[in-house]
Amino acid sequence: MTEADATDQDVAPVTATGTTTGPTRTGTKTGPTSRDAAPARTRSGGVRTEGLRKSFGDDEVIKGVDIEVEPGTIVGLIGPSGCGKTTTVRLMTGLLRPTAGSATVFGTESCSLTAKQRARIGYLPQTPALFPELSLGENLSFHASMYGMRFRRRDRLDQLLDWVELSDHRSKRVVDASGGMQRRLALAAAFVHDPDVVFLDEPTAGIDPILRDKLWTRFHDVADAGRSLVVTTQYVGEAGQCDLVGLLSDGELLLLDTPTNLRRAAFDGEVVDVQLDRPLTDAELTQLSDEPFVLGQIERTGPTGLRFVVDDAGHAMQLIGDALHRSDASIVEIDEHLVDYDEAFLRVVQRHRTSSGATDEPDRLDRPAAAGDRSDHDMEAAR
Questions:
Q1: Do 72 and 227 contact (CB within 8 A), yes or no?
Q2: Are 136 and 170 in contact (CB under 8 A)?
Q3: Which residues sit opposite 257 in a β-bridge?
Q4: What is the signed CA dihedral for 365, 370, 372, 375, rounded to 10 degrees?
Q5: pLDDT value of residue 34
Q6: Rounded CA gap, 264 and 297, in Å?
Q7: In the chain, which ranges are continuous DSSP H helix?
Q8: Degrees (nearest 5) of the Cα angle 18, 120, 184?
Q9: Most C-beta atoms within 10 A of its C-beta, which of 51, 173, 226, 230?
Q10: Nearest to 96 by CA among 52, 144, 160, 162
Q11: Element at 270 (helix H, strand E)
Q12: Closest alpha carbon to 62 in 249, 256, 255
């Protein structure tokens, strides 16, 4: 399927494909929504970008993005509004031509994929093509027909409508369906042909939290069956649902790592918060900061509160206790500070912008962008 707005001179004359890249899978997700590693079914679904760049006129909006996605892996792309998430996906799918570098799927340039290769790719754009006067079921059936699905199509459509909880609304016209229903229908259409590689541009936007959680469970099932998924999201907490997280800012890929290491990147280590029975003097704090297990400067969080950045929080707690005992100070409370993804995002992006001389504050990710990340320059160019 193609996006209707992809019509400028930089757009490849092809239907949507997929491609994004990132290092090979280094671990499973952590946290309350983590899933155990499962042996993936063998499927040749590798995707990659190398030195990917895109400029509109003199304005470079994607700046050397390198990502690789192995089969059976979910890679999430997060970042502020206008950071380049949608542009990156459009380059990966072949809807836009790169200015430099490459985007490949199945080892083939995304703009040169054969029809057979494209039939192995699923794509959910931000503005999917749905026919307003057709029913939800008829729309999904039409998408299936575009992939040549004939035999047992009804069973597949029933399965997908149930998957997105639209079975009871299959006869409803799209024009009469809510925005959330239309989004779920478009999501089902991206999976209708059982693709090997799937690109989902904000698939859970406008969907209630309970159903979002159910959809992520199903994304995990798809990945565990050996498919590759690239997902952009406006909800920062969904970073924990991914195997690898790519953080984009101002067209640059700041990091591509596991959710655990995204949290570590906020402080360049693990964090321990301590409450003492008395305040430390500046001299005592300086001496404590010189301890070999302390990374950087110790931060005061209150009159008797301290924040340590260490390599291993569990191991460092005993060392902190010993060091404070030598200063004749007693610990009232000590805990590892678990950095949430929103805090990690804000700190990493702000650090990048400070180092690059930018002064604007990064947007938080746990709210929808005003125009669905459409401040990307490619949306302007495609109008």
A1: yes
A2: yes
A3: 245
A4: -100
A5: 43
A6: 16
A7: 85-93, 115-118, 136-146, 153-163, 179-190, 209-224, 259-267, 282-289, 313-326, 341-355, 377-382
A8: 70
A9: 230
A10: 52
A11: strand 270-276
A12: 249
- The edge-to-edge listing of strands for the beta sheet with 252-257 is 121-124, 197-201, 228-232, 74-78, 244-249, 252-257
Task: Give the number of residues written for the chain.
Answer: 383
Weakest-pLDDT range from 150-154, 177-181, 278-282: 150-154
| Domain 267-337 architecture | 2-Layer Sandwich (3.30)
β-pair partners for 225 = none
pLDDT tens-place string over residues 266-275: 999 999 999 9
Give the closest residue to 309 by CA, choosing from 346, 350, 345, 337: 337
pLDDT at 299 over 80: yes
Query: Tokens 């707690």 map to which residue?
Result: 317
Tokens 């490949």 belong to which residue?
104
Report whether pLDDT(366) > 70: no
Q: Are 247 and 253 in contact (CB under 8 A)?
A: yes
Cα separation, 85 vs 61, in Å, equals 10
Q: Do domains 47-264+374-382 and 267-337 have the same CATH topology?
A: no
pLDDT per residue over 23-61, tens digit each?
A: 333 333 333 344 434 334 444 568 899 999 999 999 999
The residue ranges of every structural domain in the chain are: 47-264+374-382, 267-337
Beta-bridge mates of residue 75: 230, 244
Find the Cα–Cα–Cα–Cα dihedral 283, 284, 287, 292, rounded to 10°.
-150
Residues 272-310 as b or e (16 or more Cβ within 10 Å = b): bbbebeeebeeebbeebeebeebbeebeeeeebebbbbb
Q: How far apart are CA 31 and CA 260, in angstroms?
A: 8
The CATH H-level (homologous superfamily) assignment of domain 47-264+374-382 is P-loop containing nucleotide triphosphate hydrolases (3.40.50.300)
Q: With pLDDT > 90 as the criterion, what percentage of the chain qualifies?
A: 66
| pLDDT value at 360 more than 70 | no
Give residue 76's pLDDT.
97
Q: How high is the pLDDT of residue 359?
A: 54
Q: How far is CA 367 from CA 70, 204, 234, 334, 342, in A?
A: 30, 12, 7, 33, 11
